[in-house]
Amino acid sequence: MDSALALHRLHFAFTVTFHYIFPQLTMGLALLIVVLKTLALRNTDGHYDAAARFWAKIFGVNFAMGVVTGIPLEFQFGTNWSGFSKARAE
Prior knowledge:
Elements lengths: L2 H40 L3 H35 L1 H5 L4
Helix pairs in contact: 1-2
């Protein structure tokens, strides 16, 4: 196998594996934040609101990292597998 092709496949595998973590964590954190905010609204205890604010910050960082790792994936798909976008599905 061509060494440039092997290097590209290794880079793509690393990028996709690293990016794969962030969407699942973002969806899980969104549910957690909703539950914590609901508990904060139902109870007068400020701990739930503080926890929701803390996890919202983590959510923001996680979302940003997902965007940052997802953008190279778009370029990798476009530059390396652009032939697939020309193929028609019948």
